[in-house]
Amino acid sequence: MKRCFANNYDIEGFWRGWHASYNRWLVRYLYVPLGGARRRALVIWPIFFFVALWHDLEWRLMSWAWLICLAFVPEMAIKQFARSKRFDSWRGTLSYRYVCATAATLNIAALMAANLAGFVVGLDGVAGLLQEMLRRPGQHKYEHFEKTDQPNGNGVAGVPAIMEAAGVDDNGRVFDSPAELWQTQEAGEVPKFGAPAVAYWDSQEASDNGVLGGYGHLSGPDVRDSRAFLKKAYGAALAEAEAGQRQLVALDCGAGVGRVTEQLLLQHFAEVDLVEPSAHLLEAAKQRLGGQAVKGVPRGHKAVNFYQAGIEAHHPQPGRYDVIWLQWAALYLTDDNLIAFLCRSAASLKPGGMLFVKENVCERGFILDSSDASLFEKAGLRLTHTALQKDFPKGLFKVRMYALLPKP
């Protein structure tokens, strides 16, 4: 930077002061050759498009460039209009300063929105933030688990802490809340969705494509974002393990064919246990990971135990694990069973250990086949980090990741 600047009343002033050497290059080799000040309202579009490409080839960075330009164009028009001599006497007045302050506020908000869209949450995320900011007091939006007997593609679960939202069951009946749904159940009746789900997975191909419901090509983005999230929430411990200062142990819940174990967990953890109810899928995981050395896995890292069990029946060894990873598996449990498993998981963590949940989220209401529940708060867990999965196709449920610590 040419200088330390704290107050920028216009977007143009911001970009002139930010990254001076790169700005000079852009002016010399793009701005001037493309027409300079004579065509500035048009020239800024290819320039910011180039800057977005310079950062990375992502659509959300393109949205950053477009949002910057959309804010830039009216600013340039207003500046041109305000240069007229008719405003000379007004410029020294208090009202003029208030107008400048208001415009500065709008400019800063525009820069914040563009940066949020381009570098953090995307356009959809910005829309959600604005919706939350403008929501009336007392209104809340909750994300929560979606439960389904037979997942299709990306169809598994979701999230939250506390949820009081309307929704529907698999017969199309509408309920004002999950509590109302549970009240309709006969005394002692428990929805039986676990067994059909295991039967469903037993009938699927034992491969990455099979366990992802035909979306095998999403394994790469899934693992990429999971790894980034794991490092963000648990990076200090991972760094110690990489330096040889400690050995980490993880549990993969609903492990399927061992996709997450092989591509994510074994890259960072010396030992990984797998729990999976489908014998068909677990056998494929054993063949994939049961050897002495697995291609692409660091030397000495290995899958140790293969448990054939539903997580509602699994009791993790107390104090064994540094991390428990629960992805697209919570849907198979009733409320009480899932909360009980989360409590058992917390007890099986070493001091400082974390529980990671990665599930689909439904933003409005609930969609369920047999059950839906409030989870984390009831299980005594504290949320430390959360993030949305990126680069999944439209039409699939959004996927959110959660890092949780047991409450003291």
Automatic annotation (TrEMBL):
This is Alpha N-terminal protein methyltransferase 1. It is found in: Membrane. Belongs to the methyltransferase superfamily. NTM1 family. GO terms for biological process: methylation; triglyceride biosynthetic process. InterPro entries: MBOAT_fam (IPR004299), MeTrfase_NTM1 (IPR008576), SAM-dependent_MTases_sf (IPR029063). Keywords: Membrane, Methyltransferase, S-adenosyl-L-methionine, Transferase, Transmembrane, Transmembrane helix. GO terms for molecular function: N-terminal protein N-methyltransferase activity. Gene3D superfamilies: Vaccinia Virus protein VP39 (3.40.50.150). It catalyses: N-terminal L-seryl-L-prolyl-L-lysyl-[protein] + 3 S-adenosyl-L-methionine = N-terminal N,N,N-trimethyl-L-seryl-L-prolyl-L-lysyl-[protein] + 3 S-adenosyl-L-homocysteine + 3 H(+); N-terminal L-alanyl-L-prolyl-L-lysyl-[protein] + 3 S-adenosyl-L-methionine = N-terminal N,N,N-trimethyl-L-alanyl-L-prolyl-L-lysyl-[protein] + 3 S-adenosyl-L-homocysteine + 3 H(+); N-terminal L-prolyl-L-prolyl-L-lysyl-[protein] + 2 S-adenosyl-L-methionine = N-terminal N,N-dimethyl-L-prolyl-L-prolyl-L-lysyl-[protein] + 2 S-adenosyl-L-homocysteine + 2 H(+). It is a multi-pass membrane protein. It holds the Pfam family Methyltransf_PK. It comes from Chlorella sorokiniana (Freshwater green alga). Coiled coil: none annotated. GO terms for cellular component: cytoplasm; membrane. Its EC number is 2.1.1.244. The chain crosses the membrane at residues 37-55, 61-78, 98-123.
